[in-house]
Amino acid sequence: MKPKISIVIPYSQYPNYLKECLTSLNESTYQDEEVLLVTDHVTEELPALREGIKVIDSHGSGVAAARNTGIEAASGEYIYFMDADDYVLNNTLEKLWQAADGQDLVYGIVNNTWNNKANFLEKKAKKEEEQEDIEEKEERRQERIAQYQSTLPEDANLEQEMAIYFLLRNRKGIRNFTVLGNLYKKSFLDRYNIRFCEDFRYYSNMTFMCPVLEHVESAVQVQDAIYVKRKHNDPINYPALRQEDSDDRFEERLKAVAYTRTLLNPEGHVRYFLDMKLIHYFTNVMTKRIRRSEDDKWRNEYFNMLIPYVEDTQPAVLDALGRQNTRLVRALLKGDINGVQKAIRWKFGKKKLKSMLHNRNTAYKLAYYHSYLKKDIQPKVILFETFMAKNYSDSPKYIFEYIAKNYPEYTCVWAINDGYKVPYGAKTVRRFSFQYAYYLAVAKYLVFNVRPPLWYRKREGQVFLETWHGTPLKRLVFDQAEVTSASPKYKQQFYKQRQDWDFLVSANPFSTKTFRSCFMYEGRMLEYGYPRNDILYAPNKEEIAARIRKQLKIPADKKTILYAPTWRDDEVIAKGQYGFELALNLETMRRELSDDYVILLRTHHYVAEHIDITGYEDFVYNVCDYDDISELYLISDICITDYSSVFFDYANLKRPILFYVYDFDKYKNQLRGFYIDMETEVPGPLLYTTEEVADAVKHIDEINEQYHDRYEEFYNRFCCYDDGHASEHVAKALLGKE
């Protein structure tokens, strides 16, 4: 018996993605299908395949050839295309099939994501819970549809026109043509001989989809049949096809448009919207390249190459343009690059002026790019910043203090936001201010413990020291299979920024090896320990501790517990903002321990503002705003943490460490993953409830004895570079005074 749906999956590389793709089909509630895995120059071993999957060699190279091979081999009534790095939801195919009643085309919804299926579903559920205006959005959607339908002639095929509306008109840009998420009737494709043009590596989708829309007579949309298009969050090592960097893209885009035009009615609606996409590409994308790119080919070769393709545009498309875009297109058709550049300056100049008047952030960036970068670098100026200018702390603090004491001829500038008065007469500037942008441009030396702003451009002659901010337990950057934080372009951005680093500080051999891998860093590693840990070896550390206890008003008869949990990647509120719920039950801790202990609560700087200890002020001290956590280590008798790197530093004191890991399985398997085995390598017990934590504190002497040998091994492995002189060694390396 023939299957109802043939699923065609081209495959050439990245078996981990393919595994999840096939798993999503295994979990599908619809099983009357055949899966055709069409391989193209596969060099890696295929993952284990379920029984019944047919593996076919493509008759040619590239996605288009693989899909055509699949069409010819398909025996199903309908064809469904998937990319090997994508997945479907459990009910997607079933919903599409239920709507299929002999239609030529049944089209669903494509959702884009950077996440695996588990994280996608979790975020989708959260979004649905929080979305209160679903009805309002649907109402606006229906209004837009009605408006579009009102422009159609009375004899229009409404099913065809709505397919054109959703699958062509509403797609942003030529590159967003997609054949994914839809059922195509096999007999319909054969009747009109609709196939992919195999001459195109990047833009074959339009050569298939436009003829489908040109000829389709019956079509239906299924809004809740979701296909998930997965973007690769590591385009450096594992680029998707659309993330490949190629000089051939521009010319191929134009040739694909020209070829597709030959398949269409020159006066038809599909041709109209295809031409509109080409004009949109010129007026909204290419103009930015002409204006900004350092490569003159955008103003010469590519500019001239585009002209004949725009000349062949439907007149109705040009008639529909606004004044500014009409001016741009007219200049293009005359071959007048100067006229185009003048129109671009007018178009974007108005935007800049508006932006400057309403957004101060744009103004200081413009000053940075157009003025400050032209000034001379000041050879004796050093700019310091920690945690995006939130405080005066961490390794940059100790490097600065060593330089201020020993090399007073240097001018030190601190980026800091809260008006903190930095010692030794250092100048302070607010982050994202004109002065901040100025010193980013002219300082000879820059010392950061996180990344600088994305708009920073390192100049020839500048020296960038990255101290980083901890020995890694959680997998970082290029060692992360999945990025669940707010910035899905994290790896791409990180790769670009880490190329600016001249030095990177390492606290131990483990960090050196890990940083080489996770940062793809090949520059000089300063293997001296963390400057921020120098205070833990200071000869007067007991005096410092007494001063801090007095400053925080900690009762003399109480011991202190430092509770320092980290943030969770998936608790995203908005871009760069994270939520946090305190899992440790403070009431239980107070009841069990308040006779002997107080708690110092210190969260990660990402989530510090979300902490509320109302009602527990007699037992819990909120030290989230205390700048220097290294000083808090000195006054803490016990450290409780989870996946924060604080325990690597705290271990220098050889004091007890407890690990409250209430979400251990999720963090280990779904979020970050770990570099070391927490169950066998960390110097303290893993605890899963508040009751277990309280009990461990009560029996801390027994815990110390139980973990003594493991603690010694841990100390020797991770604290071996720290000796109290890291600041000196790092400062001398930075200034070239070794």
Automatic annotation (TrEMBL):
Pfam families: Glycos_transf_2 (PF00535), Glyphos_transf (PF04464)
Keywords assigned: Cell membrane, Coiled coil, Membrane, Teichoic acid biosynthesis, Transferase
Annotated InterPro entries: Glycerophosphate_synth, Glyco_trans_2-like, Nucleotide-diphossugar_trans, TagF_C, TagF_N, Teichoic_Acid_Biosynth
DNA damage as UniProt keyword: no
Enzyme class: transferase
GO MF entry, a single one: CDP-glycerol glycerophosphotransferase activity
Subcellular localization: Cell membrane
Domain Glycosyltransferase 2-like: start-end pairs: 6-132
GO biological process: teichoic acid biosynthetic process
EC number: 2.7.8.12
Span of the signal peptide: none
Coiled coil region boundaries: 111-147
Membrane topology, as annotated: Peripheral membrane protein
One GO CC term, this protein: plasma membrane
Family designation: Belongs to the CDP-glycerol glycerophosphotransferase family.
Protein name per UniProt: CDP-glycerol glycerophosphotransferase
Organism expressing this protein natively: Catenisphaera adipataccumulans
